[in-house]
Amino acid sequence: MKRIVTNLGVLQIFFSLLLVIAIMFVSTYLIYRNSISGIYDKVTQNNTLVFKSVVQSFDDSFRTVDNIIHSVHSLPPSDNLISPDDDSLDMTKVYTLVKNLSTLISTVDYIEEVVVFYDDARLAITSEGTSGFERFFDGKYRHDTYNASYWKTYASTKHAFKIFPADSFKVLDINQQPQSRNLMIAFGGNKLATSSKNVMVMIDVAALLKHVNQQSVIPGASLILLDQDRNIIYSTDKQWGLVDVLNDVYFNADREASLTRENYEYNFYKSDYNGFIYIDKVPYQFQNLNPVTQANDSIMLTAIICAVALSVFLSIYLNRPVKRILRLLGGGHSKGNDFRKIYSGIVKLQADNELYRDQLAFADKELRRGVFLQALDESAHAKAHDIQLQTYYPALFGEHCFVMVLFQARPRPDAGEAPLPVETIADRLEAGLRREGAEASVFHVSRAEFIAVVGLSKPEERARLLKRLRGSIAAAEKEALLGYDLWACVSEAYASEIKNANRGYRDVMNGMLYRGVGDAASVLDVEEIEYVWNVYFPFEKLEKLSNYLLNGKLQESVQIIRETMGENAARNVHRHQLVHIAKSMLFYMLRYAGSSANMREELYAIETEFCRRAEQTFDYRELEEALVAVAGRLSAYGRAEPKNKLNSAFISQYIELHYMENLYLDQIAAVMETTPKYFSNYFKKTFGVNYVEYLNKVRLSHARDLLRSTSLSIAEIGEKTGYLNASTFTTTFKKYMGVSPSDYRKQNDQQIV
C-alpha cells in the first residue's frame, strides 16, 4: 500500500482528477448562484415580451374579423332578398352571397362560420349554403342562452360591434352527431351599417389560440381578456377573482399597469385598436425556494465526497494503463513526469496525423478529379467500378442543378514570370468563384483548360452566375492570376445527375469551337451562340499562293494570307472554321515546297508547330502572323530555280501559275530551254497525257470552281482560265465534262461565298 501511495504516477493522476473536480465544483456553484438570483427576472422579462406579442396577435385577429364584417356589408345584394316582382325569395342573390362568403373566409383558419340574415327573412345564409334561422341556431349550433330567439331580438335593437364571451356550443358534425365546441361570437354593429344585413362571425377559440401562439408564456401564467366595457370575453383561469383587482388598478389608453396581489402579479395591457383589456396573471415568486437551496447544497457536498473517493480509486486503477500508454508512445520505463511524456508522444502523433491528413486530402482530391474525368468520358465502365465511385458524386453536385464552365488560362508573352502550376491556377479559380458566392469545384483537364462544376439551387440562377463570372474573371486577371488571359464558356443548366456531366462538357467544348473570332467577351454563353457558315475560301487565290512561294514571291503570298484571314474575321466566322481555313492554307503552301529527305523533316516540324499553335490561340491575328511566318520560311525554298528546269515539279508548278495565259507548246518549251518536239515527248512520257490535254484539265478545274463559287459570266470565266473566246471555252468544257458550262452551273448551284 505504501508503494502505491508513494508512486509518482498515482499521485499525478490523483491530483489531476482532484483539480478537475475542484474546477467543476467552483463553476457549478457559480452557475447555481447566478441562476437562482436572476432566473425569475429573466423569465418575467421574456414573458412580458411574449405576452405583448400575443396581445398584438389578438388585435390583428379582431381587426381581421371586423374587416370581414365590413366586407360582407359591401357584398351584393345590399338590400333584402325579396324579389320586387312576386314578393318571393331571389335565390340568384342568395347563391351569389353564399359564394362570396365562402371566398371571403377561405383564408382565415380560425373562423368557424359567417352567418348573414335579414330582419324580414327567416333565413340564415352561410358560406356553406342556406338554412332556416331557427333550425340553424336551435339545431346545428345549439346553446341554452344564445338561441334563434335571442339573436333575432338582439339584431332588432340598436347596437355597436360586439364580441360575446367564449362559451361551449353543441355543434352537429357531418354525421349529425353533437360535439362540444368552444366558440366566440362577433356581432356586427347596425348603428352605422351600410346595408340591411345582420352579420355574425363565429370564431373557433381553439384555432384562434393556436393562431396567436401563447405556448411561450411562463408556465402557470393565465390570460384574461375583457372588452371595452370590462366584460370578460375569454379566460384561461376559471378562478380569476378580478373584482378587487379592477377596482384598485388605474388604467388608461396610453400606458400599462401592474398590480401585485398575494402570490400573483397582474399586468394590464390596453389595446389601441378596440380598447380591449388584456390581463397577464403570472406567479409573483417561485415558492419553496429555501428547501431547494438546501437540497442543492446537500447534493454538492455529497458529490464532493464521492468525487474525492472516486479520484483515489481511479488513480490506483489508471496507473497501470498510463504506463502502458507511455510504452506505446515510446516512453519506455524511464523516470520522470509521465504526463509530460504522454503529451510529447501525442504531439508527435498529431504531427504524423497532420502529414497523413494532407496525404489523404491530396489523394482524395485526385480521386475526385479522376471521378470527374471519368464522368466526362463516354466510354463504358465496369458496374462495380461505378458503384465504388458513387460516394464521390455528392461532392461534385452540391445543389439541385449545375452548369459547367470551361476556363482557358494562357500566360501573356510579356508577363515576364514563370507560369503557375496548374493546381495553383485551379485553386485560385475556385477561390474566385466562391468569393462571388458560387459553390464550385474546379479541375484541371488538359494544357490550359480547367473545368468548373458550379451548383445552382434552380436553373433561373444561371443568368446571375454569368454576371458574377465576368466579375470573377476581371478580378482574377488583376490579382490572383495576374499575367494571364482568361476566357470562360458556360454550358446550359442541367439536373445534378452524373449522366449530365458529359452533356455539359460537350456544351462548353463546342462553345469554344464555335466562338466567333471577333468576339472579345471574356465569358461565352452557349445559349447565345449564333451559328454562321459564310466562310470565305478563294480557291483561285490559294492556288496562286503555293506558286508564289515556289517562285520566291513572298510579298504576294503575304497579301493573299492577310486578305483571306481578314475577310473571315470581318465575317466573324467560328474559331474552328478559321483554324480549318488556316490549316488548309498551310497545306497549300506545303504542297510544292520540296521532296528531299532533309526538307521533309523540316516541313514536318513546321506543320506540327503550326497545328499546335493554331489549337491554342484564340486571336485570329496570332493565327495570321503564324501563317506569315510559315510563308517566310517556305519562300526561301522557292527562290533558287532548279538547275534542270525539265522536271515534273517545275513543269506542273509553272502551268498552275500561268494556265490563264496563252501557253502554247513552243512558248513553254522555250521556258524549259528545249525544243517543242522533245518537250512534247518528255511531257507525254512523264505525265501520261499530252501537253494540250493536261493544260485543258488544269484550266477546266479552275473553271469549275469559278462556276460553282462566283456569278461571273461564261465569257468572263473563259477569259480568266486562258481561252480566247466564249465559244472555244464552251466547246472544250462540253468535250471534257459532258455538259455545257451553263448546265454545269445549274447542276451545282450553290450560295456564292
TrEMBL record:
Which UniProt keyword terms apply here?
DNA-binding, Membrane, Transcription, Transcription regulation, Transmembrane, Transmembrane helix
Which sequence ranges are marked TM in the entry?
12-32, 299-318
Identify the domain of life.
Bacteria
Q: Name one Pfam family in it.
A: HTH_18
The UniProt record lists the HTH araC/xylS-type domain at 649-747
Q: Which InterPro entries match?
A: Homeodomain-like_sf (IPR009057), HTH_AraC (IPR018060), HTH_AraC-typ_CS (IPR018062), Tscrpt_reg_AraC-type_HTH (IPR020449)
Which protein are we looking at?
AraC family transcriptional regulator
Species of the source: Cohnella hashimotonis
* Organism taxonomic ancestry: Bacteria, Bacillati, Bacillota, Bacilli, Bacillales
